[in-house]
Structures are given as C-alpha cells and as structure tokens.
Design brief:
Layout: E1 2-7, E2 12-21, E3 24-33, H1 47-52, E4 57-62, H2 69-81, E5 87-92, E6 105-110, H3 118-123, H4 125-128, E7 132-135, H5 141-152, E8 156-161, H6 168-174, H7 182-192, E9 193-203, E10 211-219, H8 222-229, H9 236-239, H10 243-247, H11 253-262, H12 268-274, H13 278-288
Parallel strand pairs: 4-8, 4-9, 5-6, 5-7, 7-8
Antiparallel strand pairs: 1-2, 2-3, 9-10
Helix pairs in contact: 7-8, 11-13
Length: about 290
C-alpha cells in the first residue's frame, strides 16, 4: 500500500491510502480541513496549553489510528505558533495540516518528497536548528532514538505512537529496543518525558458534535519520574486517580468517561464500551447517583 496526501483545493486536502484488494486497486481517502481548531473547539482540557508550551523534552500523543492524534498535535503546534517566536520543523508521512507562519517559523517536510525517510530527515535535524520537532509517528527504534537524542539536546519533540493508554505507552516504547538497551531508554525517559496524552474519539448525544475525545493525561513530576526510574510504570495507573495527580493537571481515562456521561456528552453504554476497567467505572458512576 502507499500513503500520500492529495491537495483538492486551498482549503481541503485528503490523506490517501492506495492498496490492492481482490486484484484491483482500492483507495481510502480522509478529508483534512485546513481549519485548525483551538483546544476548546476540540473539547480538550486547558492543561493542553501548558503541555504545548514546554521548553524541551518529549510529548507523545497515544491512541489507535483515527483517534484524532494528528488533529490534537496540530492544535498544539498552532497554539505555540501564535505565542512563541520559535522554529518548528515537522517530519510527516504524509503532511496533513498546513500551517501558516504567525510568530513561529514553520518548515514542514514530507517523507518521500522532501526527504527520503524518517531516518534521513532526523539525521539532518541538527543542521536545520529547530526549537520544536514533530515526528509524525514513532514506529521504530531508530526514530525513537533520534527523538530521545533531540530531547536531550534541548529540543521539544512531539510525536505519536500506537498505544491503548498512557501507561501502556512505556511498554510500547521499550518493545522497540533490545532488552539490554531498555534501562538506558528508561533513564532518559524519566528525565525527558514531559507528557503522554492518550485519546479516543467517542460518538456523542449531540447532533452538532459527531465525536468527542475521551482523554487520559500523564504528566512527568517527581512521583512519575521515580516510578519510571524504578521500573514501576504499571503502578502509575493508580497514581493517575490520586488527588495529587489531579491537582497537577493529570486526567485518568475513567475520570474523563464519568465527566462526559455526567455532562450528557456521551451515553452510558458508550462509556462502558470504552472503559479499560468497567467495574471501577460503574462504581464511580453510581456515586453520581
């Protein structure tokens, strides 16, 4: 199969996948509007602004294909673009949202068109002197190694990764590396991770809102760093539910589902189907009455 972007007009582009099915050429095309919505327009929490303005480190958007990761990152970059005079460099396959320079200078490079592959684009990164780097997808060891190196050398790195929660993201990352390399990667992540944001789009009860993101946010602090360095990432699931985590802007997934049900954005059945822990969700919903 082949991935590419098609410019239909100045305001509309399509992300296209061309593939063979039953011996014939088939195509799947997804419309990408040039309109980049702000956080509130995407129903994202205000803490996303703080995450977007981090000075350096790694910020990962986690979720399955079609969960809105690219749209959220576009909103974050546009937020920075409106506020900071920085150099933003993107490596995408293909380019989705087109940015216009505001306060920031933005260079968007498409894999296969502007550079041969992610490896080549990342190798050239240092010479291009960016402050912020977007790597379209963290899909292999070499890409993630380059992202870690960029974060260690003072860049803010945005990326996406396929994972089913913020805490499962750690095992997804470690799975890219050989066993003897994991401890070093863990140590770098402990100090360079800024936030993992997991999201899943859910159908709503509102006619004018087709889907709404259910969000989970894990932000690095002293407690999270200790858990990472001591290889206790799995225990962060419980920490996400704590008052301390909530006060620092963290959000656990079931907490988001409870809020969306309470505010009548989604049906309880939708929340039940999306929940990673149904028993806990039902207990929290019962407390609402």
């Amino acid at each position: 199969s082949v991935d590419f972007a098609y410019d239909y007009s100045e305001k509309n582009r399509f992300r296209v996948n061309l593939f063979m099915a039953r011996g014939k050429i088939s195509v799947a095309a997804r419309n990408i509007s040039s309109n980049i919505l702000p956080f509130e327009g995407l129903h994202l929490p205000p803490i996303m602004a703080d995450i977007a303005l981090q000075p350096q480190g790694i910020v990962l958007l986690c979720g399955v294909t079609g969960s809105g990761k690219s749209t959220t990152i576009a909103s974050m970059l546009d937020y920075v673009n409106a506020r900071k005079a920085v150099h933003i460099l993107t490596l995408e396959d293909p380019i989705e949202y087109i940015f216009e320079d505001r306060k920031a200078t933005i260079n968007q490079r498409e894999i296969g068109l502007d550079c041969l592959d992610f490896k080549t684009g990342l190798r050239a990164l240092v010479r291009e002197n960016p402050d912020i780097v977007l790597i379209g997808e963290m899909r292999d060891k070499e890409t993630f190694e380059a992202a870690l190196h960029a974060a260690e050398t003072g860049h803010l790195v945005y990326g996406t990764i396929h994972a089913s929660s913020t805490t499962q993201t750690f095992s997804r990352i470690y799975g890219l590396f050989e066993q003897e390399e994991v401890e070093q990667v863990r140590r770098i992540l402990g100090y360079q991770m800024r936030a993992f944001v997991y999201q899943k789009l859910l159908p709503t009860l509102h006619e004018n809102i087709a889907r709404i993101p259910a969000i989970e946010i894990l932000i690095n602090n002293a407690v999270v760093r200790t858990h990472i360095l001591e290889a206790r990432e799995g225990e962060l699931r419980e920490y996400l539910k704590s008052i301390e985590a909530e006060q620092t802007g963290m959000i656990d997934f079931n907490g988001t589902l409870v809020r969306l049900v309470e505010e009548e954005y989604i049906h309880m059945r939708v929340a039940q189907e999306a929940s990673p822990n149904l028993d806990e969700l039902m207990m929290r919903l019962k407390k609402l009455g």
